[in-house]
Amino acid sequence: MSLQKNADHEFRAHADHHASLRLWLRLLSCTTRVEDKIRQKLRESFGITLPRFDLMAQLERHPEGLTMGELSRRMMVTGGNITAIVDQLEKEKLVLRQVGANDRRSFTVKLTKAGRDAFTDMAVAHEAWVADMFAGLSDNQQSQLYTLLGALKKNLQKQEEMA
Hints:
This protein is mainly α. It contains 6 helices and 3 strands. It has helices at about 20-45, 50-60, 70-75, 80-90, 115-135, 140-160; strands at about 65, 95-100, 105-110. The protein has a 3-stranded antiparallel beta sheet with strand order 1-3-2. Helix 1 (about 20-45) packs across helix 5, helix 2 (about 50-60) crosses helix 5 and helix 3 packs across helix 4. The longest helix has 28 residues, at about 20-45.
């Protein structure tokens, strides 16, 4: 795990800190807890890492396949990281790497039938885990939180465009 068990980023906040800092630390704490739980469940239930699951999710959305470069951009990791993940998944026959049709120096990666079947099982379980983690919030609270985070995201995007 990236943090010690039960570690909480929010402990760094103090009442005299700006509300925005306390909010950021609470968001980070919640995100870390959710991500750590998903990592644990994927490992225990399917023997797979979150990055491997994420790569398979990208490929599931694009049955025609994605280039290694596109996977790297979408997952915001280096090409070397993508290569290592694809190598592992290819050994397990979950993905297929093919030489690019237009550029023989590039590779397109696709899920195999076994990869699609495995991902379907993982995605169903993943959705149930996430729903369970958010079950303590009512539908209305989830909707409000979604709307508020959307407003934050829009504001952050606007700030990036102005920079």
